[in-house]
Amino acid sequence: MVFTSSARSGNEMPGGKSQIMEADPSFFSLREGGFLVEAMLQRLGGDYLVSIWGGAAHIGAVAMAQPRPSIAEPSRLSATASVFCYVGHKEDEVVKRVSEQLAAGLDARVVVVAGLHWDDLDPAGIEQIMKNIGSLIDKILSAARKRASHE
Questions:
Q1: Integer Cα distance of 28 and 19 in angstroms
Q2: Contacts of 138 (CB under 8 A, 6+ apart)
Q3: Are 139 and 30 in contact (CB under 8 A)?
Q4: Which CATH architecture has domain 27-149?
Q5: Closest CA to 130 of 93, 103, 99, 80
Q6: DSSP-assigned letter for residue 24
Q7: What pLDDT, on a 0 to 100 scale, did the predictor assign at position 146?
Q8: Helices marked H in 3-122
């Protein structure tokens, strides 16, 4: 089902730009240190939707980020994020970091949803999971930039 307004067609963004909708999302995964972390990237017009999961997959937190000039160095791109987190979940730091990094790196609005859960994690396990997520972000940025350069 497609909803459109009378002001524009379903294939245009404000300003008359054509929408890019990737019907097939891209999937990424990384297993290091015994922890499998997976992600899905989908482009929606000029925006990106990212899901990250691992262990017992669920939704723990969501962040929306948009690019902006850096406050400290206006010639550099940064991002600002808003975060929603379910009570008792710890994914808020993950979605904030990932959404801001991707929004600045892709110069686009990004929504990230994450659910990561392993029982009895120790600090070393948490560190490994965060390292795996960092590597996934690098893979996602590389793939999205490559795809955008071919448009």
A1: 24
A2: none
A3: yes
A4: 2-Layer Sandwich (3.30)
A5: 93
A6: S
A7: 87
A8: 92-106
Distance of CA 26 to the CA centre of its chain: 12
Quote the DSSP letter at residue 71: S
Burial of 39 (0-12, 13-18, 19+ CB in 10 A): buried
Q: What is the mean pLDDT of each run of 10 residues along the chain (151 residues)?
A: 39 47 81 96 94 96 97 94 95 96 96 96 96 95 85 67
Q: How far is the C-alpha of 115 from the C-alpha of 132, rounded, in Å? A: 14
DSSP state of 14: G
Its pTM stands at: 0.82
Place of tokens 């948490």: 126
Cα 151 to chain centroid distance, Å, stands at 20
Q: Which H or E run includes 133?
A: helix 123-149
List the domain boundaries for the chain. Answer: 27-149
- For residue 137, the SS3 value is helix
In this structure, the chain runs to a length of 151
DSSP secondary structure string, 48-91?
EEEEEEEES----EEEEEEEEE-SS-TTSEEEEEEEEE-TT--T
Amino acid at 83: V
| Beta bridge partner(s), residue 139 | none
Q: Which residue has the tokens 């659910």?
A: 115
